[in-house]
């Protein structure tokens, strides 16, 4: 083998031989897992399968340079790599294929993700961090093509941050910043914007990142030449190649997927550049084969030519590896030494097949036992009811005809039986009902737990500390409150950092970070390029490595660029790992009512609907915003905090306990008491609602004004229902479009809080027009609810009740 760019040591031929044959054995095991996995799907034991066959050799090479503390952010083809670093076993591979809900048997996602989605567990059972430097780490995979890339940037940047940032416990996350972040992506997915945005940012930031591109010539059925401007991604990336002594760009290495020694050399070089020079590297792995096609959903014979299929069978990586092993010889002390005979390799092949079959059988039997146990318990309680009810007898008969029983079949039988026997009162039925409730509780936990943290650090556990004011408390601009609070935050939390467009040198466009870069340095208070998706990705990745990142998205409208990552990645981290990983990043943004189509939109309904799993906080003032930052920095959950863009120059009294006071999430505030109608709103609209409430008082209507403060979680104490119980009328006022956030708030109040039973009038929502806001103050007035709109529409409720007392306005 050629010399490498990393330090090497002399090993004996026997050790070399053992290493080669171990790699061959692992490659064969992985291939057999792919073959058998496909058969398990096609015979109906699993719903879907997607496998890593054809990519075994480059993943074995990648595993060779993957160290403790390193992270991978990849996609669903990397089973060989996961096997090589002991992140998956044969049994856990098949447990995931069957969607086994046991964390012990399927530690990556407890059956919540389809197969091929890998993750290591970063957290202990209580939600505390493990020592991530003592293990090899895989950040939980997601399916959206290139969606894994932005997070990769943050995982890599964390190493650079840890070179200068230390705090109590930081030794659990990094050893002097020497860790590398490895990314994997399919060749066709490099057509996605997330790939280019991430690579561009990595080249600018110079972070230790290695991206492997598995190039098999197709994106499902579409050939490479139809995917990008150039068929050869290395050629397209040539402008990214760094120049000598230049602190920009990346290294680009191209290597064939079937060339074992060249792959070892390529990854050794890549590791050197990334780990020791902090240079990003792209490894373009060409001539990758995909023996079973894209997935179990179709056959690649439909779109690949006979010549291509013949070439793939000839250049299969494991076949070429076998040929290389058989051809290898070396003379040692006059003797010709060989790695293995054909008989030895055939024996390894046979052993691999048996190991995989045994592992699959064990995984299936254990998984099936969880279902047969439920089935046995249910039938034991249902059988006594069949003699009392003919329908139940028929239910059992039909159930027994089901060939492959799943949990849903058992639950359907129980629920059918309970519905059919609803008029029956008997110990047998009571026993069945109790069993159903017991089983349902378990399955609710299996399928619906950990959307939010279940640890002691969950956001709702953070104790409220009220702002303290004294005679010496100053009246200052709102931006000064948030700036001075950030100053206290960065002093208190060495692991806290903020980054975004204009966040560093000029202290953000509204001066909420004024002077802080000079005080805390450009690592912790940093500018970024205009690239919102990867700003979010930086936050996710760094939060996964124990830092406390605040990712600034300059305006609320711009958060739409982040919404895919927020929805598919950040919001689901705790859920899709069943509490195995977390990413408590704070997304700082500003918005609500201002000027123009692109700077005053309120896409809150989209954020609410697509980001369940993230706390959505909408403070009405900069003091409230500061309190939310103080709260969320004590939590292990992610949050979006929307500062009021029109509040930076408004005067607020600055609390004396900056950096300490907290605003509880999920708690509303009654800002004005009233007895006739409850007005519910949030954010900048609160000021206008308060103005409208004063006008309503002049016409004899006493309005209670409520600021929800926190949209997710929403009013956990159901205080709004108590207000409606007093006033018997409800109006929800929102600057989002019709059926947007107002619909969510109304659903929470009427359905969750059961406030409908207290209403004497139809509930009313007052929202914005369905278009984006037009420009200037008149645009705001006619596009979003004005105080005049609110007064008139609320007055109409009372006109309907008592037209004599409240005569019609028009």
UniProtKB/TrEMBL annotation:
The protein's GO terms of the molecular function aspect are:
oxidoreductase activity, acting on the aldehyde or oxo group of donors, disulfide as acceptor
The alphabetized UniProt keywords are:
Oxidoreductase, Thiamine pyrophosphate
Know the name of this protein?
Transketolase
Transketolase-like pyrimidine-binding domain spans which residues?
Answer: 476-650
Q: Does the keyword Oxidoreductase apply?
A: yes
Q: Which InterPro entries match?
A: DH_E1, THDP-binding, Transketo_C/PFOR_II, Transketolase-like_Pyr-bd, Transketolase_C
Tell me the PANTHER family matching this sequence.
PYRUVATE DEHYDROGENASE E1 COMPONENT BETA SUBUNIT, PYRUVATE DEHYDROGENASE E1 COMPONENT SUBUNIT BETA
Instruction: Show the taxonomic lineage.
Output: Bacteria, Pseudomonadati, Bacteroidota, Flavobacteriia, Flavobacteriales
* Species for this entry: Epilithonimonas hispanica
- Cofactor list: thiamine diphosphate
According to its UniProt entry, the function of this protein is described as: E1 component of the 2-oxoglutarate dehydrogenase (OGDH) complex which catalyzes the decarboxylation of 2-oxoglutarate, the first step in the conversion of 2-oxoglutarate to succinyl-CoA and CO(2).
